[in-house]
Amino acid sequence: MRCAALIFALAPLPSGLMAQEAAPLTGKDVAVHLAKPSTRNYPEAALRRGLGGTAEVLCTVTSSGELQGCAVTSETPPGLGFGAAVLRMTAAYRIESKANDGSDTVGRRFLVHMTFSLPR
Q1: Which of 14, 54, 101, 120 is deepest in the core (most CB within 10 A)?
Q2: How far apart (Å, rounded) are the C-alpha atoms in residues 27 and 32?
Q3: Do you find a cis peptide bond into 77, omega within 30 degrees of 0?
Q4: What is the pLDDT of residues 66-114, one digit of tens each?
């Protein structure tokens, strides 16, 4: 089984956000370190059905580089555990304190997009 992680930004900001609030950081904006990378988090329900999927999770970067307050923003197909799997995996992420442009990352939102696929 293979689990590939793709990290990118969503184009529109969720409704209700202030206009001056920055778009979420992504792996393109800042160095991301995986403390304990693992592919064993493939959702069991999806594995039994032989299905792949995707999920997006939005978190906040802490002063130690950890992600907190994470919430699933999308999951396809729904109900097979892809969102929960990404939530579990965010515990292994460590985000650098400075983005590639030199701005601080602490307190900023970070978007994780992960694609799960089975070997062919």
Answers
A1: 54
A2: 6
A3: yes
A4: 999 999 999 999 999 999 999 999 999 999 999 999 999 999 999 999 9
Phi-psi category of residue 52: left, alpha or beta, with phi > 0 → left and psi -120 to 50 → alpha: beta
| pTM reported for the whole predicted model | 0.76
Structure-block tokens of residue 96? 């650098």
Cα–Cα nearest to 43, from 89, 8, 7, 74:
89
The residue whose two tokens read 């992504």 is 26
**CB-based contact 72:54 (threshold 8 Å):** no
44-71 residue pLDDT tens = 999 899 999 999 999 999 999 999 999 9
Cα(40)–Cα(85) distance, rounded to whole angstroms?
9
The answer as to CATH 3.30.2420.10 being correct for domain 2-8+23-117 is yes
Domain range annotation of the chain? 2-8+23-117
